[in-house]
Specification:
The complex is a heterodimer.
Chain A: H1 3-24, H2 31-34, H3 36-46, H4 49-52, E1 58-65, E2 70-76, H5 78-101, H6 109-128, H7 132-150, H8 157-188, H9 193-197, H10 200-204, H11 209-223, H12 232-235, H13 241-250, H14 255-267, H15 271-294, H16 298-320, H17 335-366, H18 382-396, H19 402-417, H20 425-428, H21 431-455, H22 473-491, H23 494-508, H24 531-548, H25 550-553, H26 556-559, H27 566-588, H28 593-615, H29 630-648, H30 652-672, H31 676-698, H32 714-736, H33 744-755, H34 760-768, H35 770-792
Antiparallel strand pairs in A: 1-2
Helix pairs in contact in A: 1-3, 1-6, 3-5, 5-6, 5-13, 5-17, 5-22, 5-23, 6-7, 7-8, 8-11, 11-14, 11-15, 13-17, 14-16, 15-16, 15-21, 16-17, 16-19, 16-21, 17-18, 17-19, 17-22, 17-23, 18-21, 18-22, 19-21, 19-22, 19-24, 21-24, 28-32, 29-30, 30-31, 33-34, 34-35
Chain B: H1 2-26, H2 30-55, H3 61-84
Helix pairs in contact in B: 1-2, 2-3
The chains are: A mainly alpha, B mainly alpha.
Domain NADH-Ubiquinone oxidoreductase (complex I) chain 5 N-terminal (chain A): 65-113
Family (chain A): Belongs to the CPA3 antiporters (TC 2.A.63) subunit A family.
Protein name (chain A): Multicomponent Na+:H+ antiporter subunit A
Chain lengths: 800, 94
């Protein structure tokens, strides 16, 4: 157990003490006890930068289940470190923000911080685990803690709905990912990421390559809210705003991005990977940006914008995988796509975090998040306005903020895709820049809506619950830090290039690293008059036109009916599967014992017949059949006639008597076949059971005592004939297949010699195999006690 | 000679048995059937005795006694049931 392990587990350990802090120090906001931990961890992870920037990694191992190859191996490389810094850094800011956002005496702070710490530890575990099973365990813990956080206000119905929806979708994806991990294990024989990376060729040519790829991608797409699994993210906005800012913009939804980046070295060369990652990313980008324009709730706009930005990063990762096909060339144009992906990942975390916090402030200070009620807040909250403006402009891709840089790089990558002549890109490649451009226009439009509908325009005090005013300074600290990062990264982008981006790229594209020492990352403001610049200018012009004319064309969203939306499909699936399951269960579980017996016997017949046929086991051999005398014939006829006539008699009394007659005939059989003890017992037992039947008969209720013949049912007849013939066939074949001689000779020789008895049956019952007898005695005892209990114990006698 | 006699006797018993079973099945009233059953019991005694002669065994003599007892008890129980509707009366002192 090293310090690195402790760092990953520290949030989980601290969460144990949260209720104690909450109860013991009730006057101090519990968040203050949480705050030092992410700051400490952030500083601790900063100390890894010198190591990773020289392309080295730190690996610490801790045995968990070594016999199964499952060990808690923590590995810090460029990619993991980047995510760890995001998690701890934004985590610290979110905790600070939540201290001012959540009221001390109204909210259940202890549970909130327990869930948040659980999430933080789980997320650190996901990005720093080298062992895939451990990674999966942490992955599910993030789903679980996210479920708890979305449902934090569990008395609201919508919170519960959102929590359930996100749980179902992300756990579905998580299980698919587990399947992918197991397939990878089958292919390589190890769960260790590092060892799997070292044999990409074996995996690439394996039959299970495509299934594993699909399973892993399903996990990544559901977690990162890609099309069509994005539907849980807008509903997760019912969570408290710090949670939305932390989980649903900066960290958890990027776990899928992390997964795709992590698996690029393994799957990246496949065309399926390219088309799925880049294609789904682009679709998500367009879909999310178009639907974000439609929303009227601040957090819903931000949720759809998160979906769309995640699609952007995803498509960049897909295009970045092209670099693997360019091995050896110095001018590898597609590494730039990966650079853009990593850079935008950081940028998105900064500006989206600040935007969420600003939206939370607006909600907190005005009591609503509906942009139709808001407006003209610029005079009341100038600082929040500045924060929102910077964040939104960065999101829209305007200079001099960091969003501008990543958008330029995004356009570069998408334009370059058209130059490729593989994977059918010669025909479809042109759609990439077109879709990217279209999505950017809509991104611009909703960013403008977000800022200007909220802060400018007419102030409508009659629609607000309280008088708006600027937020307390403590609430503003975190978004101010984030927007200053937006500006700093925008103006000095190369601050990050050597320390974070280059090592992260080394982790995403390790096979390209052999040619050089490190990836040269240089992000420049001015490319010259390239096509990307004109695209950006086009975005701004088109976006301004669309924003100004928005009231005129907003009706277009009503063209698409609600029934065709994916949410409707999801709801119908949930409802439909419930009704279908209900119907299915009601169909076969109808409560009638007769039906269940039909199932049991039909199954028995089918299974036995198929086995008999399949093994060709039916055999009739008259070799060791003994002579059938006249007594046997007579007795057999008696039994058959007696049993069959039971089926056809009218009165139940008669059938009881007939049953007795059959039983007595059986005892005669025992006599003929020389079994005196059996005959004795059979006679006594038959008499007693006939008497018991008569007792039952006597107590039949008068109303139901109709004396009719048993009704004929074809199913019953078929089933009974089937059971009879199958059992007969098996008995005949078993007798014909007699393979060994009996062991009874031993008993014949030793009954008197060893056991001092002459009655062999009785000696076997009490001496050779006395154990069976003991437990048959027990059975009788239990039966008699049970009968006694049933008769005497009438618990509801008093009630009636 | 003995063997032939036993064969004939067994055959007759079986015929009687068949007739009695016909009565058990057909018997218009319950007492008919009960009496037939009692007679079957007696017949069983005879058949068992004959078969033990055939098998040259005295292992079945207990069976004969038992059938006798059971046939008696059974018939009495049936008779009592048909007469009173119960077999074992409780609280007869009251």
């Amino acid at each position: 157990m090293s310090y690195l392990h402790l760092a990953i587990l520290a949030p989980l350990l601290l969460s144990i003490f949260m209720p104690f802090f909450y109860k013991r120090f009730h006057l101090i906001h519990t968040g203050w006890f949480v705050l030092p931990l992410p700051i400490l961890l952030f500083l601790y992870f900063l100390s890894f930068i010198p190591i990773t920037s020289t392309q080295k990694t730190v690996t610490e191992s801790f045995n968990w289940i070594p016999s199964l190859g499952i060990n808690f191996v923590a590995k810090v490389d460029g990619l993991g470190l980047l995510f760890a810094l995001l998690i701890t850094g934004i985590g610290a800011l979110v905790v600070l923000y939540s201290i001012y956002y959540l009221a001390k005496n109204k909210e259940k702070l202890n549970t909130f911080y327990v869930y948040l710490l659980l999430f933080m530890g789980a997320m650190l575990g996901v990005v720093l685990s080298d062992n895939l099973i451990v990674m999966y365990a942490f992955w599910e813990l993030t789903s679980f803690s996210s479920f708890l956080l979305i449902g934090f206000w569990y008395e609201r119905e919508k919170s519960c709905y959102g929590a359930q929806k996100s749980m179902l979708i992300t756990v579905f994806g998580g299980l698919a990912m587990l399947g992918g991990i197991i397939l990878l294990y089958i292919m390589t024989g190890t769960f260790s990421m590092t060892e799997i990376m070292s044999q990409p060729n074996e995996i690439f040519h394996h039959d299970l390559f495509i299934p594993a790829l699909l399973c892993i991608l399903l996990g990544a797409f559901t977690k990162s809210a890609q099309f069509p699994f994005y539907i849980w993210l807008p509903d997760a906005m019912e969570a408290p705003t710090p949670v939305s800012a932390y989980l649903h913009s900066a960290t958890m939804v990027k776990a899928g991005i992390y997964l795709v980046a992590r698996f690029t070295p393994i799957f990246g060369e496949s065309s399926v990977w390219f088309w799925l990652v880049a294609g789904v990313g682009l679709i998500t980008l367009c879909w999310g940006s178009i639907f974000a324009v439609k929303q009227t709730d601040l957090k819903a706009i931000l949720a759809f914008s998160t979906v769309s930005q995640l699609g952007l990063i995803m498509s960049l990762l897909g295009v970045g995988a092209f670099a693997l096909h360019y091995e050896g060339l110095d001018d590898n144009i597609f590494t730039a796509a990966t650079t853009a992906a990593v850079f935008h990942l950081i940028n998105h975390a900064t500006f989206k975090g600040s935007l969420f916090m600003a939206a939370g402030i607006v909600d907190h200070e005005t009591g609503t998040r509906d942009i139709r009620k808001l407006g003209g807040l610029i005079h009341f909250m100038p600082i929040t306005f500045t924060i929102s403006m910077i964040g939104a402009f960065s999101m829209a891709g305007l200079p001099p903020f960091n969003g501008f840089l990543s958008k330029e790089m995004f356009f570069t990558a998408m334009v370059r895709v058209t130059e490729m002549n593989m994977f059918h890109l010669e025909t479809w490649g042109i759609s990439f820049p077109v879709l990217a451009w279209l999505a950017s226009i809509f991104t611009f439009v909703y960013s403008m809506i977000l800022v200007f509908k909220t802060f400018t325009g007419k102030f409508q005090p009659e629609k607000l619950d309280k008088k708006p005013h600027e937020a307390p300074i403590g609430m503003l600290i975190s978004p101010i830090i984030l927007v200053s990062l937006v500006i700093i990264f925008g103006i000095f982008p190369n601050l990050l290039s050597d320390s974070l981006i280059s090592p992260a790229m080394a982790a995403i594209l390790p096979s390209l690293l052999h040619a050089r020492e490190a990836f040269e990352v240089h992000i420049s403001f001015w490319h010259g008059p390239t096509i990307e610049l004109f695209m950006t200018i086009g975005v701004i012009i088109m976006g301004l036109i669309l924003y100004k004319t928005y009231p005129k064309w907003q009706k277009i969203f009503k063209v698409i009916p609600e029934k065709l939306s994916l949410n409707h499909v999801y709801d119908q699936t949930i409802k439909g599967s419930q009704t279908a399951a209900n119907k299915l269960t009601n169909m076969y579980m109808n409560g009638s014992i007769r039906t269940y017996l039909v199932y049991i016997f039909a199954f028995l017949i089918t299974l036995l017949t198929i086995t008999l046929m399949w093994k060709k086991a039916f055999k009739l051999d008259s070799g060791n059949v003994s002579f059938i005398g006249v007594y046997e014939w007579v007795l057999a006829i008696l039994v058959v006639v007696g049993s069959i006539s039971i089926l056809f008699v009218k009165s139940r009394m008669t059938s009881i008597i007939l049953l007795g007659a059959v039983g007595y005939t059986v005892s005669l059989f025992y006599i003929v076949f020389r079994a005196p003890d059996l005959a004795l017992t059979q006679l006594v037992i038959e008499t007693i059971s006939v008497a018991l039947f008569l007792v039952c008969f006597y107590h039949l209720p008068k109303l139901r005592k109709f004396e009719t013949r048993m009704r004929f049912k074809l199913t019953n007849a078929l089933i009974s004939l089937g059971v009879g013939s199958v059992v007969t066939a098996i008995a005949l074949s078993a007798h014909s297949h007699k393979l060994f001689s009996s062991i009874s000779q031993y008993y014949v020789e030793n009954t008197y010699e060893k056991a001092a008895g002459k009655n062999m049956v009785n000696v076997i019952l009490v001496d050779f195999r006395g154990f069976d007898t003991l437990f048959e005695i027990t059975v009788l005892a239990i039966a008699s006690l049970g009968i006694y209990g049933m008769i005497k114990l009438r618990l509801n006698r008093g009630k009636e | 000679m003995l063997e032939i006699v036993i064969r004939i006797a067994l055959f007759c018993c079986s015929l009687a048995m068949l007739g009695l079973i016909y009565r058990v099945i057909k018997g218009p009233t319950v007492p008919d059937r009960v009496i037939a059953l009692d007679a079957i019991g007696v017949n069983l005694v005879a058949i068992t005795a004959l078969i033990s002669i055939v098998l040259k065994s005295h292992a079945f003599l207990e069976v004969i006694l038992l059938i006798g007892i059971l046939a008696f008890i059974g018939t009495v129980a049936f008779a009592k049931y048909l007469e009173k509707g119960v077999i074992i009366e409780r609280e007869r002192n009251r």
